[in-house]
């Protein structure tokens, strides 16, 4: 009996994926470091990519968008708002769909990702949230800092987190926190509320060891 490949479930078409003690080889001891990887978009190898399964959006910073030579004309309007866990609104310049390559060679997998482009200081260039993580069919071990996924050739692809870049992002987040504005005496209450909100955003997105940041999309 012939079975149409498209009628088979994802589980039936995917290889068995498991984490073993071998995955811990070469992994430096860490204090709940975030999963930070490198991926490829167009001709660019993009470092400082955060894997955040708590985010409901895939995010691309405007700085990275600009450095890749992309133009404002390529952005599609985004009718909605992007909010942080504490309710602060994040300005979205628009969205763009880009082919994104996870790893290269026999374990490469290419998927189209709709990125929300945000103009906000960030120590990460990209945040891969649940939409693309699920589309990739990936599984993540936060203990081993290893992500596994099924390429289209029946193999199991493996990407290991970059400890060095993860620490660099953490240090960069501390510098951004030091540049946060100081409240003025004449409007102390409003300014304090604003700074707490800003620092919550910086800590949540960039100091990932202590806080989690959840993106929520409200579509009008």
Structural notes for this entry:
The protein is of the alpha+beta class. It has a single domain (27-219), classed as Cathepsin D, subunit A, domain 1. It has 5 helices and 12 strands. The chain has helices spanning 10-13, 62-67, 130-136, 163-178, 188-206, and strands at 35-41, 44-51, 59-61, 80-83, 89-90, 92-102, 109-118, 126-128, 139-141, 146-149, 157-160, 216-219. The strands form 3 sheets. Strands 1-2-8-3-7-6 form a 6-stranded mixed barrel. The chain has a 3-stranded antiparallel beta sheet with strand order 5-4-12, with no helix packed on it. A 3-stranded antiparallel beta sheet has the order 9-10-11, with no helix packed on it. The protein is globular, with a radius of gyration of 19 Å.
Residue share in helix: 10-25%
Radius of gyration: 19 Å
Strand proportion: 25-35%
CATH topology label: Cathepsin D, subunit A, domain 1
Q: Identify the strand order in the major beta sheet.
A: 1-2-8-3-7-6
Class computed from helices, strands and strand pairing: alpha+beta
Please name the CATH architecture. Answer: Beta Barrel
Which sheet architecture does the biggest sheet show? 6 strands, mixed, barrel
Segments where pLDDT lies below 50 for 5+ residues?
Answer: 183-220
Round the mean pLDDT to the nearest integer and report it.
78
- The end-to-end distance, rounded to whole angstroms, is 48 Å
* C-alpha geometry: globular
CATH superfamily: Acid Proteases
Please tell me the total number of domains.
1
CATH class: Mainly Beta
Order of helices and strands: HEEEHEEEEEHEEEHHE
What is the strand tally?
12
Number of H/I helices: 5
């Amino acid at each position: 009996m012939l079975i149409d490949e498209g009628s088979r479930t994802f589980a039936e078409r995917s290889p068995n994926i498991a984490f073993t003690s071998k995955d811990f080889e070469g992994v430096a001891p860490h204090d709940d470091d975030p999963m930070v990887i490198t991926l490829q978009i167009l001709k660019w190898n993009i470092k400082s990519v955060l894997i955040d399964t708590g985010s409901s959006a895939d995010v691309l910073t405007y700085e990275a968008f600009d450095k890749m030579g992309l133009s404002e004309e390529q952005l599609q309007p985004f009718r909605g708002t992007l909010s942080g866990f504490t309710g602060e609104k994040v300005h979205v310049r628009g969205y763009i769909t880009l082919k994104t390559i996870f790893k290269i060679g026999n374990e490469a997998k290419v998927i189209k990702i709709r990125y929300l482009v945000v103009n906000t200081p960030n120590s990460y260039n990209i945040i891969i949230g649940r939409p693309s993580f699920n589309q990739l069919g990936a599984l993540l071990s936060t203990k081993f800092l290893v992500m596994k996924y099924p390429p289209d050739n029946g193999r199991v692809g493996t990407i290991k987190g970059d400890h060095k870049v993860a620490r660099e992002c953490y240090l960069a987040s501390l510098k951004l926190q030091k540049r946060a504005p100081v409240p003025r005496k004449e409007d102390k209450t409003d300014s304090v509320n604003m700074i707490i909100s800003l620092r919550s955003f910086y800590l949540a997105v960039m100091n990932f060891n202590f806080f989690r940041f959840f993106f929520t999309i409200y579509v009008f």
